[in-house]
């Protein structure tokens, strides 16, 4: 899974940022993108905004490589602790309610993260990069529906958590949007989502399965079929 929010918490992660010279530039771009999206209202987060977020997240995933799942798991603990600390500081009932809901949305989203982690664990590094490339090649607004669900939920959770210090009404608006997106994602994954993802994964891998074949390999494979009986 792909977590631009990790760029906000590099000093709290065990990731060796010095080994990834791309991170400072990515962090600066993320700050700009997050500010642009955060100026909108939740209802204004549409396919275009989700696509901008998705393509940036995929670029970050390429930079992190195989570290990304470990980063995602560690970030989950950091964000969860931030939500608990925020709730302990609050006296407002609406704020408590919003933070509880946001914590549950984060928990539900991470169930999807863990499930994807198990799927990706079965892939070789080449197949993993192939999946990322297959998503990245998609035109922004035309990302597959299941993929849009994933990135929309992640984006809205990110913007809701970024509103912890904002007025309670603003936090509540972003939280409602994040909870709704996460429920949609969970419902999608429980029905057609996993089947669609596995089918697309199989298609991408099969499409490249013979990419390295030589003429000799082709002759070995198809020669017997063309031989005269």
Structure description:
The protein has one domain. 73% of the residues lie in helices and 0% in strands. It has 8 helices and no strands. The model has no long low-confidence stretch (mean pLDDT 80). It starts with 22 loop residues before the first helix and ends with a helix. With 229 residues, it is mainly alpha-helical.
Write the layout of secondary structure elements.
Layout: H1 23-38, H2 47-64, H3 68-89, H4 93-121, H5 125-136, H6 145-161, H7 168-208, H8 215-226
Helix pairs in contact: 1-2, 2-5, 2-6, 3-4, 4-6, 4-7, 6-7
What can be said about this structure in brief?
By secondary structure, this protein is an all-alpha fold. It contains eight helices and no strands.
Estimate the helix proportion, in percent: over 70%
Largest sheet: none
Helix/strand structural class: mainly alpha
Distance between the termini: 53 Å
What percent strand?
under 5%
Overall tally of domains: 1
Quaternary: single chain
Please count the beta strands (DSSP E, at least 2 residues each): 0
Radius of gyration: 21 Å
């Amino acid at each position: 899974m792909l977590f631009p929010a990790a760029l906000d918490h590099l000093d709290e992660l065990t990731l060796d940022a010095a080994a990834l010279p791309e991170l400072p530039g990515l962090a600066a771009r993320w700050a700009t993108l997050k500010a642009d999206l955060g100026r909108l209202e939740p209802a204004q987060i549409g396919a275009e905004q989700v696509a901008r977020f998705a393509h940036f997240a995929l670029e970050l995933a390429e930079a992190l490589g195989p570290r990304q799942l470990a980063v995602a798991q560690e970030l989950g603990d950091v964000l969860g602790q931030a939500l608990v600390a925020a709730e302990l500081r609050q006296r407002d009932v609406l704020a408590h309610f919003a933070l509880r809901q946001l914590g549950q949305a984060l928990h539900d989203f991470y169930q999807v993260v863990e499930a994807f982690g198990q799927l990706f664990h079965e892939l070789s590094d080449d197949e993993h990069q192939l999946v990322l490339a297959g998503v990245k090649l998609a035109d922004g607004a035309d990302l597959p529906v299941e993929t849009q669900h994933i990135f929309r939920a992640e984006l809205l959770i990110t913007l809701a958590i970024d509103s912890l210090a904002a007025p309670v009404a603003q936090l509540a608006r972003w939280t409602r949007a994040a909870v709704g997106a996460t429920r949609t994602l969970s419902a999608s994954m429980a029905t057609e989502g996993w089947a669609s993802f596995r089918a697309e994964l199989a298609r991408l891998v099969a499409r490249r399965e013979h990419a390295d074949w030589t003429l000799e390999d082709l002759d070995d494979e198809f020669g017997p079929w063309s031989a005269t009986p």
